[in-house]
Amino acid sequence: MTLRFKDYLTTSQARVQSVLEGFLDDYLHAIGNKETRLLAAIRYSLLAPGKRVRPMLVYAAAEAIGPANHTDADWAACAVECIHAYSLIHDDLPSMDDDDLRRNRPTCHIAFDEATAILAGDALQAMAFEALSRSQLPMQAVAILSTAARRMVDGQAIDQAATNEILSIEALQAMHGDKTGALIVASLKLGALSSGANSQQLAALETFGEAIGLAFQIQDDILDITSTTEELGKPQNSDSDANKATYPRFLGLEGAQQALQQQHQRAITSLEVFSHSTALEQLANFIVERRR
Questions:
Q1: So what's the pLDDT on residue 1?
Q2: What pTM does this model have?
Q3: Which among 6, 23, 56, 285 is least buried, having the fewest CB atoms inside 10 angstroms?
Q4: Domain ranges, ordered by start, for the chain
Q5: Which residues contact 279 (CB under 8 A, 6 or more apart)?
Q6: What is the DSSP letter of 67?
Q7: What is the largest CA-CA distance in the chain?
């Protein structure tokens, strides 16, 4: 990870963290300044230490297009992080992936309880659209984010049904295109809209997002079997032990690594229409090089 990208990621993290904290302060004020168990669970999950890749994508896409409406980009970044946090809470539940550890600390249902975790996820999904409503983005933005949220649910349903089943590589890619790629694409498009992107630019970013979404998932699957629990921040071999459909399972480790490089090259090629895409290029590099 280059120094410039590390700095860019740190700046993006700090920027969206400030927006998220202010958003939660508004929530607290709306309920009479009383810190409830539910709000504590929301705060625990939304402000958890994380890479904030999706907000960074919002900011980087806006920058690739041109001068952005910074307020619109901030609310878009807040919205996609709310959706992401909600999805992690629900994915970790005993009825889903049944994980006890996330980002090197107890998952929401372990830190609180299962009912509170479900409600926190429900609230965060609604809060995403409340955040988006504070921007001046066109109604197209609502359609982009709602479609991504629905596709994530579709992908999770397919993932659950695929346990102990044999999928084709095409079906595996389609599943992760929904589960992981959809919100990544939405993040890019929302950021681009804050800078007034045209249809050609949105199409290029969709290709980029689909490619890095698949790359992100392939690398996740590779790390699941090559990294330690301490490096991952969650149990090693959790997907393998659950007999889930993964790229190494179907392609072998070497084949999965080749697929990762193919998606990386596809992502880089899609950015040729932009003159200011350094942050996006470095993000693509980061995804294939990350160790957690």
A1: 47
A2: 0.89
A3: 6
A4: 3-289
A5: 5, 8, 56, 59, 60, 63, 64
A6: S
A7: 56
- 267/202 Cα distance (integer angstroms): 14
pLDDT at 228: 60
**Alpha carbon distance 43, 22 (integer Å):** 11
Helix H or strand E encompassing 164: none
> Residue 95 has which token pair?
């009825």
Residue 63 has pLDDT above 80, yes or no: yes
pLDDT tens for each residue of 240-274: 545 667 888 888 999 999 999 999 999 999 999 99
Residue 154, Cβ density class (10 Å: 0-12 exposed, 13-18 middle, ≥19 buried): middle
Give the C-alpha separation, 76 to 61, whole Å. 12
166 secondary structure, DSSP code? P
180 DSSP 8-state letter: I
Instruction: Give the tokens for residue 26.
Output: 């508004």
Could you report how far apart the first and last alpha carbons of the chain are, in Å? Answer: 13
CATH of 3-289, one of 1.20.1510.10, 1.10.357.10, 1.10.600.10, 2.120.10.30: 1.10.600.10
Please give the Cα distance from 59 to 70 (Å, whole number): 9
Task: Dig out the tokens for 9 from the structure.
Answer: 């990621």
Q: What pLDDT, on the 0 to 100 scale, is given for residue 237?
A: 52
